[in-house]
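Subject: for your reference before the review

Hello V.,

The reviewers asked for a structural picture of the protein, and I figured it would be easier to keep everything in one thread rather than splitting it across files. Below is the amino acid sequence we used in the manuscript, unchanged from the supplementary table.
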Amino acid sequence: MADSIGFLVEYLPRIGTTSVVLDGIKEPSLKYSDLGKITVQDGRGERLDITLPYNPGKLKSKRLVRVSNSNKDEYLLILKSEEVRMDKSHNDVLLMPQMKWNKRQLNGLKNFRLCCLKCDGDIIDRGNCSRLNEMPSEFWMELMDYWHCHKPQDKTSEFYSLQKNSLSPCVKEILIGDSFFQAVEETFDGRTAVLDGNLAMCSNCKKILGRRTSDRMLRIPKWKLRLKSDDCQEDVFPAEFEVISILLNCNRANSTRYILLRSDDIQLYIWLFAMGIEVTLANGRTLHNCFKIFYSDVIPSNIGFKANVDEEQVDKVPLDKFIDALETTNSILPSSKQRFGTWKISYFPAAVE
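And here is what came back from the structure prediction:
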């Protein structure tokens, strides 16, 4: 690969268009293969082979233009497919792939164990887990209006508060969210202890694992555990995907595209600019079904008061790792694609690959 040539490939499934931005190249010539690859060669003889994130097959049109407002040698290649793939999973956030360690995956493992990341003490195994169930949504309480034809009007009544406004899993029943496990406290007897302030720690090594919820259940983030089983290698859950689960659930709950994330003295303002796109980066990495994210550490002044903005508290570790991932990807984008006004631009997969 020619190191001096930067590029970004972006495939938009809903319109069947692939755009390729080439940076630091002079007088390029292109060769397209029906196998989903293009070969770029410039006037200096440097050659670059690029694998597209999706094979467009036969092309309806192919157009190469120089980017006129760029200070560098930059070109834009537009590939238009003859056939547009209609895949609802690329335009419906509700149908995006589940995060890993979901019910189907865990039920398919032999003797799985979820252990403390620090000491390997068992937190969830067949000794305290007889049933797995998916959480309806991490914002299930906010979606109550859609569940009832004749919802009780007196929300302060004991019946409504206890019977309709809380989850009541059985002992040894584990609820699975996108980024956490949750169960009644008795399920974790002998494995965790609850401290003042509603923090839950590992009974063995005293590491803080999670917290007690308002309905007196314990919630443990997936990234604080390690997965083991008889038929697969040990696995961990990347902490940064806890932030992705928050962004997904904000969008699922009320179609929010603007989210303000806070942790201690850190804040990150997110604009979910596009979802369900396919990308190939200059390091050769391909991201499927991913987000195009605009981000800033300050709220841009051009965002009006009419914008629907959600504000979410995030643990420091996931937010730090999420910011690092955004910055790493941003740094390898062509210079013209690193910013949009005051926003920085990056890409992130919607699920762990």
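For the response letter, the relevant points are probably these. Helices lie at 103-107, 158-164, 241-254, 316-331. Residues 239 and 317 are 7 Å apart (CA to CA).

Happy to draft the paragraph if you're swamped.

O.
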